[in-house]
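On to our target:
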Amino acid sequence: MSTAVTTFKPRRSAPTLASAQTRDRWVKRRVTTVWGLLILNCITFTAGAPLLVPIPHRIGELVSQGSLPLALLLAITVNRKLVIRPNLFLCLETLLVIEALVTTFEQVHLGSVYRIFRFAEFIAVLWLLTPWWGRSDLLLLRAHVRWLWVLLGSVTIGLLLHPGKAYSGGRLIDIVWPVQATEVGHYAAVAIGLAVVMWLGGLQRGRTTLCVLAVAGVLLLLSHTRTSAIAMLAGILIAGVSLFATRDRARKFFAVSGGVLSVVIVTAASVITTWLDRGQSGTQLTSLTGRTDFWGMVIHFPRDRFQEIFGFGLSNVSVNGLPIDSNWLVAYMQMGLFGAVICGVVVLFLLVTAFFQPPSPQRALALFLITYCLVASFTQVGFADVTTYLLEITLAMSLLVPSAESRQPA
């Protein structure tokens, strides 16, 4: 009598839910770390800045400049197949890198070559992060907000430990890591604007928003950064209007804030005026703290036809040792008319893309970032170089695209 024996071959089981969640947490941590390293690379380590604990200049430069190669390495580990999402926005930014490379053929400078390599490396990391655009959990946006609060926390610690040094020049600076007053105001304004728009869109609780307004609002006021405050208000206005028809909270917010703002302007007009003028004379205000003098030097700087079209190449964004402090004139100086036009096309493309999107919190957040960067670009170095502004308009673009998962077939 024979006995039939049935052999069952083990089959490879599908990934469990726990393993998928573990990998997702691993990916989120890596992507958040990469984004933080990019922000660190955008902060120039200033020699001689007053610090709570003195940091040698070489070590500070090594940390700041070494964060970009580390970000590229981490981005490759999290995106091992080097998958990218084709998009016109990063194609335009890549075109700026190519244009800067072409400029070096006219006159080679070691500093320009290094800056081009850095710019290209920065854009490469942004390309590697494109698979995480459009996520419903707003991974990149929340990573940006998290690192903004790391920076603002550093400013707050320095202010609490040594207020005299942190506020010695009449404007708040970071004395834990060298961050100037304009950047402190920038980080605080963006944190406030994003928190308000997220609350209007129902993505954040009211208590959290109030805490953000209390802490970041004080830091913004102490930094005395007028450009950031004006850009923040303009961004909140445009973002709120985009939610006006679909969100009852937005309509109530504008009704209440309009009344409160009217009372504040009437009762505290002198205080607001004092904060805005920062003790400057009328001549300094009309010249934007002397910026227009530098801008005139940029416009009338001698150049030939090639330099007028393609610029002088990437530099330390100054002319005759004086800072330019304008995205459009920096683009004109470094990349010529070609670079300035590309920057204009980038902004126009983002605005048109946002216009054709249905009303949503993601669209409102993107409009805030676009408006903020556009207003600030007139008196700050914006998205024609490796700056935090470039990261923020990249965030705006990531909010305007559909999720990568929704585009894949079931």
